[in-house]
């Protein structure tokens, strides 16, 4: 594992990673903790700002140039920006089911799904995570699997408790 590829990357990529990494951690925390509390509302606003920064910074990243510097991943950034607005609008309208659906989509599609593609060979995060240490790929993969299983078990446990 080495940070060199990230430190050598353009500033837009550095900003993108600096926003998405805490968004991933904070989002997991928010999904696992009680909802509707003052803490949830405050941290949720911070999370949405981090998601917006992540999406906006992506428009300055052009590593995959398919159409005038943009690629299909930039459509996901639009999805995230509209999703952030939808999460806020639905929370304000007290449409909590829609708010939950949007936030889960943002987290699992915008962070987990898109994040998985950043670890493909040739991408910067692949070099960060997997260069320099033979055990790093297994530790990163194990950590991701454990975190996802933990999140899913918390969600299942909460649903059973509500039934």
TrEMBL record:
Segments passing through the bilayer: 12-30, 42-61, 67-90, 102-120, 135-153
Domain of life: Bacteria
Keywords, alphabetical: Membrane, Transmembrane, Transmembrane helix
Protein's UniProt name: DUF2306 domain-containing protein
Organism: Rhizobium tropici
């Amino acid at each position: 594992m080495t940070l060199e590829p990230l430190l050598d990357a353009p500033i837009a990529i550095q900003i993108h990673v600096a926003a998405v990494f805490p968004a991933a951690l904070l989002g997991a925390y928010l999904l696992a903790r009680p909802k509707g509390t003052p803490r949830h509302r405050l941290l949720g606003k911070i999370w949405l700002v981090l998601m917006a920064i992540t999406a906006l910074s992506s428009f300055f990243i052009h590593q995959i140039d398919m159409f005038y510097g943009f690629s299909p991943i930039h459509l996901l950034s639009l999805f995230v920006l509209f999703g952030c607005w939808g999460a806020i609008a639905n929370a304000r309208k007290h449409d909590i089911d829609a708010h939950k659906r949007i936030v889960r989509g943002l987290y699992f599609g915008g962070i987990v799904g898109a994040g998985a593609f950043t670890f493909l060979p040739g991408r910067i995060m692949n070099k960060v995570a997997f260069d320099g240490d033979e055990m790093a790929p297994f530790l990163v993969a194990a950590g991701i699997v454990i975190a996802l299983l933990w999140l899913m078990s918390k969600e299942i446990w909460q649903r059973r408790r509500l039934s």
